[in-house]
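thoughts on my protein:
***
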Amino acid sequence: MKSNKGKACTRERDFVYKFSAGNQHLVLTVPLKFPVQENISHLHGHLMLLHNLPCVIENDLKQSLNKFVEEETIKDYDREAEMALEAVKSGKVDINQLADTWAKAYKETMLEYAKPEETSWDEDFADVYHDLIHSPASETLLNLEHNYFVSISELISERDVELKKLRERQGAEMDKVMQELGKSLTDQDVNSLAAQHFESQQDLENKWTNELKQSTAIQKQEYQEWVIKLHQDLKNPNNSSISDEIKVQPSQLRESVEGNGRIYEEQRLLEESFTIHLGAQLKTMHNLRLLRADMLDFCKHKRNHRSGVKLHRLQTAMSLYSASLCGLVLLVDNRISSYSGIKRDFATVCQECTDFHFPGIQEQLEIVQKVVLKARAQRSSKSKKHHGNKNNGNEDKSKNIERNQSNILPGEFYITRHSNLSEIHVAFHLCVDDNVRSGNITARDPAIMGLRNILKVCCTHDITTISIPLLLVHDMSE
């Protein structure tokens, strides 16, 4: 069929037009290749100009040309259709495969035949949660989340106690060994003991990491199943036990055991609010709040279940799937990890409470790393094609970038989503360099450009509140 179609594409036919000019009878013959790709009006004008034809035959020539092209095109279509039918009748074409191809084409191009879009589990759960958090069951949801939070906090406290005891015991053992160094013990004995201590710490940390991961997975599954069941029960008007199900007595709320110095001290906040209008003709109003606080205070949950904390959590939960999200800017280095600095502190806060809606912080960071590696590979391949050979300085820079393709550049940022933080839904991790830390920053600094791009993302993705470190530093100095 393809070969026949190819022959039809290269077939030529002669267009013959007879007309009279005075006593002369003339014939115009023009070879045309079918299917005709050129516009008929343009072809008609070209023939009139090329052959210097009289204007009295202009309209008749155009009608004849249109009629000829239309008739011959229909003949070609009919011929191809007959050949296709013969191929089906003779068994050269599988009729089932042909039917599947037609069905697929109709589903992809015709809206009435297209399959309805199937919502994912995450979308269904988001809709269910949004309905429940705006219903009388909202207090029940928050109380259940608080109980899960207390449970994870107690596990973390037990982990910290065990790790502290292990380090103290290992420190005492190392002190004894160091006292005997040079007498009955050698450097090899010290190194061997240090390796044993490191291995013991790794084993204990891995044990608690697995236990916390298992506990959060169980909590997430139980919570989501309970939310779906509660939503179904609320839809059933004949269910008389639903009123008891959404009631939570104060005695049912678990209070965490404060110990080992893990108490969040509440200090009096110093803040000042301003209202500004930006724009020349179409002014927009913005509310600014200058606040003395640690950036992570917007993320931490308080372990005591007070009404003020509960209202904060309720507001964050009710706006989780809304057009009024809250964001936070964290200043980080160029490594996508959670091993040091404020990245480690932020990850610790995220792990203190199970995220029932989004992947954990470590899973999100792994996804970001894969995206960065893919983007770097595409960017490097494009730059090699466009620029070719470069000088030595640029070669050194390109080699440095190739060695650290998993790192991001100053001014770039990545985003993580959270439902388990106190007042934050979205965290922007903005990469900054030493210029910001030293105070040598200009209006064209990558950090300023990155902050500008963050604000653009906020405007296009319904993030109406964003917290930014003052002067782009986390620690104020003289």
Remarks:
- Strands lie at 12-21, 24-33, 271-278, 284-291, 325-332, 413-417, 426-431, 463-467.
- The radius of gyration is 36 Å.
